[in-house]
Amino acid sequence: MENPVVYFKGLFSKKLKSNALTVAGAGNTMTHRQQISPFAVIVRKEIGDHVRSWRFIVLLVLIVLTFLGSMYVSLTNLTNPAASPAVPDNGLLYLKILTTTDGSLPSFHIFMSFLGAILGIGLGFDAVNSEQQNGTLIRLLAQPIYRDNFLLAKFISPLIVISALFLSLGLLMIGGGMVITGVSIEMVEVLRILTFIILTVLYVGFWLSLSILLSVKFKQATTSALTAIGIWLFFTIFYKIVVNMVVKAFLPDPAFLSQTDILDYNNLILGFLRFSPGQLYTDATTVLLMPAIRSLGPLTMEQMAGAIPAPLSFRESVLIVWPQMTGLIAATVMCFAISYYWFMRREVRS
Amino acid sequence: MKNPVIELIGLTKLYGSLKAVDNLNLEITKGEIYGLLGPNGAGKTTTILMMLGLTEPTAGTVSVCGYNATSNPVAVKQKVGYMPDNMGFYDGMNALDNLIYMGRLNGIPESMVKERAVELMELVGLSKAMDKKAGTYSRGMKQRLGLAEVLIKQPDVIILDEPTLGIDPAGVKEFLTLIKELSKQQNITVLLSSHHLNQVQQVCDRVGIFVEGRLLASDHIDKLSTHLFSREAHVVIITLAHPLHNIEEYNQQLLKVEGVNAIEVHGNTIEISCTRNATPEFVRFFVEKDQDIMGVQRKEYGLEEIYQRYFENTLTENQTNGKSGSIFQRSFFKKIKK
């Protein structure tokens, strides 16, 4: 930069101005076609950042290892009748691959109930506060973009990444299963596995939006990460204990209760347990992947009396897990709405 | 004062009970370089954030390029390039990618964005370090990258918050020259905030002195100094080859010159305060007395002194009548407007 003025005269004033003129002059149609919306630009950049980050690679390795481990266990135990649940169906092999286990490793969907949380927290805990700490947030917001675009991009781009991840894992499982067993897949299985993947993405999405909420709230990335992990630990470990303690303290002894009362209380306890998103997820995936399961709560003998021991249709399984899905979506949207509320009118300073 | 680019009317910002910005009125016209001066915590950054719609004012309106910055911030941000005081870049990306990203966000078509980014990197003198990661950049380089980023959207207004912070003096000069040239050639309005007075003095057309949320003065630097130092507006320092012997006699004769207020003699330098510019008369006087004049110097009042004055004034005022400075402010504004 020997003499800035020389640079200017040559470059800035002529070239850039003429460029600007051609852009303006060549008609807005051209620019419109070429332009990408700012939202798409941010999403693109965010996805690139995620895919290249070490954090994501570590999480990816973790999930792929879990996946391979549980696939290995289930494939070696497929022929073992003791390991596979006593289901009255002989088809639906691919669902069995996902759920069968000999007890040495939990099956994949159980694994996902806590790995999914880690994945969501890991991708979102520093979404907003790290940008604020680095001073990039204020620069970004000084550009002509809407604030909600930024927040939405922070949510959507990890979601796209994990959708791709789980979709490829699911397809890998189907393909690998075909090669190994030689059994062709049925439409119901495809539907159930797809719904399972959507549910998993939704579950990760919940933790993601919770961690984004915390990253909006806390200025330090470590604080928000620790808080998110704290919430996750509370729900996976302590929540059950707390519910059990409360139940023991407040509910009467089941020995002195009638059948219907016990049923009511059981439903009540289950209802409380379902405040935990992990519980919602395991409930929903278990029903989806094991068509023989027909209810999530206890059933009376009368209810079971007329039942034919056959797998439920896809539609019926979805109907059973509909409340769970709605609950997960509602929790996700709620977290996102709160972070939106906090972020939109906040003063951004570097 | 027609058609102001930036117009602040009655702008007020409260943080709890603390008044960060207090009833601020300011107009900045097109093509002007305006310096917002004040000590740390005076409310400069808050004012700038309100101009960009990044913070909502408690009362009053901000309009930039004809748009209301509070209700229509995106339109304002399309016209305004803002460089925050401590900005950061995405350290994992190289500098050019950082710039291209910002270009894309501003809706520059994909076919042109790279070309323009490279041009701007050359313009700010970073063409050699273009492919380096932004994290490895030094403070001065980051500042230039920040300027490139401000320019990529081809703004009508540039707002620079403490642009000279942390760069060495040579870099500051280069940077400010660049900004000045830019403003003159492209007719870009520049608003820069600083607490480095002498640096701002070099480039600004007008300055505003901003203390504790209030704009105490807003005018051209020379007008400010003549206004403030009207009693001793012209101070001439004359250096002689030999010390004077009969000081009293000289004093008597010099005081007869019209408008001379005071004379101070320190060895062979003589400092004369006068209400008008009587430098030639003084020189003639000493020549006639057969004194060898080594140097004649007119003392200019820089921002430093102006700033000091205002600061002292507010301090003493605060001590005498609490924090209500409105009387002082009002009387001052009247004087300025004349």
UniProtKB/TrEMBL annotation, chain B:
<dbReference type="InterPro" id="IPR003593">
    <property type="entry name" value="AAA+_ATPase"/>
</dbReference>
<dbReference type="Pfam" id="PF00005">
    <property type="entry name" value="ABC_tran"/>
</dbReference>
<protein>
    <submittedName>
        <fullName>ABC transporter ATP-binding protein</fullName>
    </submittedName>
</protein>
<comment type="similarity">
    <text>Belongs to the ABC transporter superfamily.</text>
</comment>
<feature type="domain" description="ABC transporter">
    <location>
        <begin position="6"/>
        <end position="237"/>
    </location>
</feature>
<dbReference type="InterPro" id="IPR027417">
    <property type="entry name" value="P-loop_NTPase"/>
</dbReference>
<dbReference type="GO" id="GO:0016887">
    <property type="term" value="F:ATP hydrolysis activity"/>
</dbReference>
<dbReference type="GO" id="GO:0005524">
    <property type="term" value="F:ATP binding"/>
</dbReference>
<keyword id="KW-0813">Transport</keyword>
<dbReference type="InterPro" id="IPR003439">
    <property type="entry name" value="ABC_transporter-like_ATP-bd"/>
</dbReference>
<keyword id="KW-0067">ATP-binding</keyword>
<keyword id="KW-0547">Nucleotide-binding</keyword>
